[in-house]
Design goal:
binds zinc ion, two-stranded antiparallel sheet, 5 helices, elongated
C-alpha cells in the first residue's frame, strides 16, 4: 500500500529530524569537537574513577563529569579543575 509507505517515510523523517535537533543542541551546550579533544587530553591524566577511589577501588575507563553544574556557562564548562573523572556506571548514579 502506497499510503503505508508514505506513513513510514514521514515517521522516518521525523526521527531523523529529532536526532539532528538533539545533536545540534548538544553541540550548542559545548559538547563539540573541542570538548572531545579536551576530554581526550584530560582522561589519561585522571584515569581512575574518583567515586571508586574514595571506596578504595581503582576503576579506570572513566568519563568526565562536571562537579559544578555548568548550566551552559562556558567558564564552568571548560574549567578542568571542576571536572571529575568518573566510571560510566558511577556517573549515571
Ligand atoms: Zn566509580
Amino acid at each position: 500500500m502506497s499510503g503505508e509507505r508514505e506513513d513510514y517515510c514521514e515517521q522516518h523523517k521525523r526521527t531523523t529530524q529529532a536526532y539532528d535537533q538533539y545533536r545540534e543542541s548538544a553541540a550548542k551546550r559545548g559538547y563539540n569537537s573541542k570538548w572531545r579533544q579536551s576530554r581526550a587530553g584530560y582522561l589519561p591524566k585522571h584515569p581512575l574513577c574518583a567515586a571508586c577511589l574514595m571506596q578504595g577501588r581503582r576503576t579506570s575507563d572513566t568519563v568526565v563529569d562536571h562537579i559544578v553544574p555548568h548550566k551552559g556557562g562556558m567558564n564552568l564548562f571548560w574549567d578542568s579543575s571542576k571536572w571529575l573523572p568518573l566510571y560510566a556506571s558511577c556517573h549515571g548514579r
